[in-house]
Every structure is written in structure tokens, then in C-alpha cells.
Amino acid sequence: MSLLEIEDLRVTFSTRHGVVTALDGVSLSLEAGETLAVVGESGCGKSITALSTMGLIPMPPGRIAGGAIRLAGEDLTRASDARLRAMRGAEIAMIFQEPMTSLNPVFTVGHQIAEAILLHQTVSRDQAWRDAVALLDRVGIPSPDARARDYPHQLSGGMRQRVMIAMAVSCRPKVLIADEPTTALDVTVQAQIFDLLNEIQHDFGAAVLLITHDMGAVSEMADRVAVMYAGRVIETGQADDVLDHSRHPYTQGLIDCIPSVDHGGALREIPGVVPPLHLLGAGCAFAERCDHARDQCRSAKPDLRETGGHLAACHGAAEGWL
Ligand SMILES: Nc1ncnc2c1ncn2[C@@H]1O[C@H](COP(=O)(O)OP(=O)(O)OP(=O)(O)O)[C@@H](O)[C@H]1O
Ligand SMILES: [Mg+2]
């Protein structure tokens, strides 16, 4: 049994275009202590996967229309609100892209970490404050005693993200979900935050679900990777195997977008856009952007199948014409 198992998860939203399927049979598993990267372009369902796991999908308009999310065997899709509140922060914690949205501007950062500790642990206020300062020290914040008394706006973006990491690990969660934790930061600070996440994972023994649109981060951080497109996992396996021997043209496109000296460090993009959910047809959602697409690709959705040591959902990969 994996620590976290997402099995055939379907999430729908009621919209003005009718009911759309944001997650269409997503399966992921996370083992204790490992890092799984979930990667894909904007709108492919990464955050909805994370929010479903946290029990934070707004319902309505959202609905979990099928599947299961099991944490150490317990199905969270069937858990009560009280159980989910107790679970959040203590067993699974989440770090968001923009720390300003999850930090409260009117309280000091030390106060907010201490409150997070007091919510789930029976310790005195003084002890919670001392623990908060120790955590700030652990995540590399200089003069943690003084910084604990700062308000979020007094800290830089990178320091705020360190505060979020401190808060997230304050109750030693088994699972840490980091949703694009470095997108709002500049490149050198991004690298520092990734280093910190690696260290923290080592020290605290947490499993990390790292959400990113950056294949470069995958190669640096992840043991395994799941590539998502239009609400489905389209390729998954060991990170180095998927990066070195990707079988899906979409994954290949993301890999080609990793800035490298080969193309002068210039940022590339896959031509075309992700189709909006209400316009998804019967075929492969990537077909209209795919140079290799055949008629079959436009008429039938490929399932994930074993191909070259890992799983890919591509007719061409499965049938050997790619
Ligand atoms: N409240 C909502 N109502 C309707 N559709 C929604 C809602 N929330 C999300 N969606 C849709 O679900 C899909 C997946 O969204 P999600 O936020 O998971 O994307 P993402 O992969 O995290 O993208 P990004 O990289 O931009 O954060 C998108 O098509 C989005 O429009
Ligand atoms: Mg997102």
C-alpha cells in the first residue's frame, strides 16, 4: 500500500458551458519519503489534483464524481469535514505558489507558525513560539528571533516562501504538497527553495508531491514524474526514464522547453494551446497540437499503457509508429 493513492479520480465543475470534467480518471501514488513531480501546462489539472487531496475543492461548483484518494488506506473522498480539518496541516500540508495569499497580513509570521502548531499539538504558547523560531532558523531565515516578529510584507518573496515551508512542516506532515512553490521567485531564489525542499524532505522524512510546469525542476527534484494534459495523466514513470526516453509527444515538447545552452537559453513553448475543457472531444486531447497525429488519435482517447519501461497514453507509442 502506498502512503497516498489517488485512484481513477474524476472531478467535474458546473460552468456556464455545462458540466466539464477537470480530472478524467487520474491515478497517482506517492511512497513514503519520495518526491513525485506532477507536471504540465496551465489548466491541465495539477492544482485541482492537489486541492482534491486536501479536501479543498469548492463544492459546488466542483464535485468529486468518482474515484478515491487514500491516505494510508483511508479514503479522504469519504471523510467528514471535521476529519479533513484535522488531517490538513497535520498529515498533509500544502505550500502554494504565492505565499502572500496564504499568509495573513495582519499577524507576525512567528504568530502564524505558532498558531499552526497550536492547532494540531498540545504545547504551551511559549513553547509554540520557541518552536516557530526554531523552524524559521531551520528554513534558513537569518536572525529568526527578530524575523518571527515581522509581518509578511516586511519579508522578501523568497523569505515568505521559507516561512510557508516552515509552517507546512511544523506538524511533521507525512505528505507535503508544493504547488508551483517557486514560480513567483527569481531564478537564484528558486534554486535555493528547491535545495531547501530537498533538505527538509530529508530531515522530516515527508513525501513530496511537487507541482510544476518546469521539466527542469523535475530532473533536479523528482524520483518519479506524472505528466498531465487536459485532466489526464498522459505519461508516468521514473523521472530519469521519462526524461531520457519519453514516449509521449507532449512530454517530448515539455522537455524541449527546458532552457539549455543548445538553444541559447531561450525560452521555448509548445505551439498551440490546451483546449478548453468544454471543447474536449472523443480523441486524444493533444492530437491537434501533435505533429504525429493520425485519424485514430482524433477519434479515440488512448489509455495509459506500458511502453518502454514506463506508462504512456499515446496510440503511436503503443502501436510503434512513433
Ligand atoms: N471553480 C472552477 N470552475 C470551473 N472550472 C474550474 C474551476 N477551477 C478549476 N477549473 C478548471 O479545471 C482545470 C484545471 O485547473 P487547475 O487549476 O488544476 O490547472 P493547473 O494545472 O493547476 O494550471 P496552472 O499551471 O495555471 O496553475 C482548468 O481547465 C480550470 O479552468
Ligand atoms: Mg495550478
Automatic annotation (TrEMBL):
<keyword id="KW-0067">ATP-binding</keyword>
<feature type="domain" description="ABC transporter">
    <location>
        <begin position="4"/>
        <end position="255"/>
    </location>
</feature>
<dbReference type="InterPro" id="IPR050388">
    <property type="entry name" value="ABC_Ni/Peptide_Import"/>
</dbReference>
<dbReference type="InterPro" id="IPR013563">
    <property type="entry name" value="Oligopep_ABC_C"/>
</dbReference>
<dbReference type="Pfam" id="PF00005">
    <property type="entry name" value="ABC_tran"/>
</dbReference>
<keyword id="KW-1003">Cell membrane</keyword>
<protein>
    <submittedName>
        <fullName>ABC transporter ATP-binding protein</fullName>
    </submittedName>
</protein>
<dbReference type="InterPro" id="IPR027417">
    <property type="entry name" value="P-loop_NTPase"/>
</dbReference>
<keyword id="KW-0472">Membrane</keyword>
<dbReference type="Pfam" id="PF08352">
    <property type="entry name" value="oligo_HPY"/>
</dbReference>
<dbReference type="InterPro" id="IPR003439">
    <property type="entry name" value="ABC_transporter-like_ATP-bd"/>
</dbReference>
<keyword id="KW-0813">Transport</keyword>
<comment type="similarity">
    <text>Belongs to the ABC transporter superfamily.</text>
</comment>
<keyword id="KW-0547">Nucleotide-binding</keyword>
<dbReference type="InterPro" id="IPR017871">
    <property type="entry name" value="ABC_transporter-like_CS"/>
</dbReference>
<dbReference type="InterPro" id="IPR003593">
    <property type="entry name" value="AAA+_ATPase"/>
</dbReference>
<dbReference type="GO" id="GO:0005524">
    <property type="term" value="F:ATP binding"/>
</dbReference>
